[in-house]
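Q: Predict the bound structure with iron/sulfur cluster.
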Amino acid sequence: MSVLDGRKIPSASMSETLSPFRATLTLDQEQVFRYLEYGGASPSKSVLKKLSQLTPKAREMAQPQALSRICSVGEAADLHKNDLPRPIQRAELLAFGLCTIGSIIEQEAKRLRDNGEWLDWMILNALGSAAVSELCGRLGKRIFDWAAAQGLNASRGFEPGSGAGHWPLERQRIVFANLPAEEIGVVLGPQLSMWPEKTLSFLMGVGARIPQADHPFSCQGCKRIDCVYRYEPAKH
Ligand code: SF4
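A: Predicted complex:
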């Protein structure tokens, strides 16, 4: 990197892989409510009781793993600059991210569904979604920290196919072309669905020419304001 006006300018050639990490998840109730589609409403006592029973089990079953690779735009594989989400087309670096909680929770959720245990199925499924979302938030913050340590800004994460990013699902191939997904047991299917199901992928822009995002993941910008999954964390 060189320094201009006190700011570090990334060199055209650089690549760094953040070490894969495992995490103990908190599984905050408010986040799980979001995936139970409660919006702002309060769940019933029976749901809350079941949630408190299943939360520690979900923590045990989760196998959280995450990895990220940061590289200069020129070093990214299978990428044309127009493929990037519009807000990060001036970024000098790209951070690809992949997070999974493994397949045990989804297997147990399917067993519950096949047994007709609908409430347990619904809650465990929501816990799995909250778990991978929490993991993604942690990886995003690691990338924020990495960027800050270099004196650079980082954008929010853009997930292929997500309404907030207007980044087409087909871009999933670019994320997978730039990450060793097999290291954490993740496979991309021909229809662009990921396995295990509770897996999320994303791309962030990093550099001196883009503004710093307030939060790594937010639904800010998505027009679906009535979406029950909507998440817009408060600015710090
Ligand atoms: S509001 Fe709903 S559809 Fe839009 S990005 Fe958020 S979760 Fe996705």
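A: Residues 118-149 form the longest helix (32 residues).
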